[in-house]
Amino acid sequence: MSAEEFKTAITGKFVVADTNILIKAFENPSYFKGFFEFLIDCNCDIANSELVNFEFTRNDYLPEIIKLKEEFLAKINATFTIPYTNGILKEALEIAKVYSHQGIQKGQISLVDCCIAALLKQYDKKLFLVTLNHLDFPISLFDREYIFPINAGDNVMSLAFYRFNNEKWQKLQECLKKIKIGREVT
Amino acid sequence: MKDEEKIIKNRCRSILKSDNFEREFLELEKISEKAKDYIKKENECRRIQDGNHRKICSC
User: B43 CB near a chain A CB, below 8 Å?
Assistant: First the structure.
């Protein structure tokens, strides 16, 4: 997808910034200035996600740091919070089953990432994810819509925007339904 | 307040919807710098505490 096509696709929608992005942006905002400008150009918003916020602050105990992180989140997130419903964990488990069937290593994809995948599934028309951890959102289930590179001193970061693909999901569900012990019926 | 108005109001609080991105971005950088200072002080404090601990304890 070209930059222009992507901008059209994401205009007016929300994007969840994965924890790894928040951590890097908190450490070095200057690397992310162009990224924020790109989002402004796309006319989209960063959705507030309690799951990501949990991961972002879970290792902090100093009140001063926690307060600064809250200020940081308040500055970059829209106050719109992705509704977290009771069904999310159940959906996350279904997604984890698909990952397991695909041979993704046990525990490689965390509970939080499975829950984020479930949220992306639930709001697939309105919600994108941007992350640095590409293995956690496999393209067998997600579409990698756009890659945004960041020149970060000695390193280059590749931020990718993902969207849940419900067609891929349906196909994988059909495949799972046909499974019998010992072999898969085609 | 209608839902649509609420969404617009909420979006206005984000740096992405600010009238002055440059100013807001500077604020982000200040937040980051403050955090670095606190972490540096905390690490220094821990290092001293660990050093003192080693002096008085054989564990």
Answer: no
Q: Is pTM beyond 0.90 here? A: no
The predicted complex's ipTM stands at: 0.83
Q: Which residues contact A150 (CB under 8 A, 6 or more apart)?
A: A31, A32, A34, A35, A156, A157, A158, A159
Which residue of chain B is at minimal alpha-carbon distance from A33?
B25
Task: Spell out which residues of chain B touch residue A35, defining contact as CB-CB under 8 Å.
Answer: none
Site from A11, A22, A72, A128 to mutate, B interface, most B CB atoms within 10 angstroms: A72
Q: Per residue of chain B (59 residues), give pLDDT as tens.
A: 555 555 445 445 688 888 889 999 999 999 999 999 998 988 888 878 777 766 665 55
